[in-house]
Design brief:
This protein has a domain of about 100 residues: Immunoglobulin-like. It is about 40% helix and about 35% strand. The chain is built from four helices and six strands. The longest helix is centred in the N-terminal third of the chain and has 37 residues. Strands 1-2-5 form a three-stranded antiparallel beta sheet, with no helix packed on it. A three-stranded antiparallel beta sheet has the order 4-3-6, with no helix packed on it. The N terminus is likely disordered. α2 crosses α3. It is of the alpha+beta class.
Length: about 200
């Protein structure tokens, strides 16, 4: 009698637990569905962050060179800045100014002059022979001295001009005389002559 009663009680207990589980399972499913419907969907910003993060991880996985190429390039310079740079380059291309304190090269004519001169008729009476004494006061020797002589009438009007190159060298701080140099044919009406140094080369 006791065993039968226990058997009936045990079977009743199992039937009660199965009934309770059958009632609770639908409630759990409904609660999960409601929670899923109520939960907010991810926004565009979240999608973008996830996409950017995924791209960055993919580039790092591929290697540093690929990631460097994929990096965005800096903004292109302003056209006005490029023009300014070109302008500066053009200014820099100009010839440099003279060095301050540097003395310019002295001209041979600065210290070369005729210390004495005279002339006379020569040949058949239509040629001029000129005697000159040249003084070189420069700190360097000079050579290839070109002389120009102007012949004039008694009233001062010009009649003939002649030039002559002296293929000689005059040492520094010295003088030299060239007597009776043939200048060339001149007008027979010439009465006076005035000679001057035109050019010379320094040594």
């Amino acid at each position: 009698m006791t065993m039968r009663i226990g058997s009936v009680s045990f079977r009743g207990y199992r039937i009660g637990r199965l009934a309770a589980a059958a009632l609770i399972a639908p409630l759990v499913a409904v609660t999960a569905l409601a929670a899923w419907l109520v939960a907010p969907e991810p926004g565009d910003a979240d999608d973008q962050d996830v996409s950017t993060l995924s791209s960055a991880r993919l580039l790092l996985a591929q290697g540093p060179s690929t990631a460097k190429q994929a990096m965005p390039s800096p903004a292109s310079p302003n056209p006005a800045d490029e023009q300014g740079t070109v302008g500066i380059a053009r200014v820099s291309d100009k010839a440099p100014e003279a060095i301050p304190g540097a003395k310019p090269e002295k001209s041979p004519l600065d210290g070369l002059r005729i210390a004495y001169q005279s002339w006379r008729w020569g040949g058949l009476g239509s040629k001029a022979l000129v005697t000159l004494t040249l003084r070189n006061a420069n700190d360097f020797a000079v050579k290839d001295i070109e002389i120009a002589c102007a012949f004039i009438r008694r009233d001062g009007s010009p009649v003939t001009e002649r030039t002559r190159v002296i293929p000689d060298t005059i040492a520094m701080k010295s003088r030299k005389t060239y007597p009776n140099m043939l200048i060339g044919f001149i007008n027979i009406n010439a009465d006076k002559a005035k000679c001057s140094v035109v050019t010379a080369s320094r040594i």
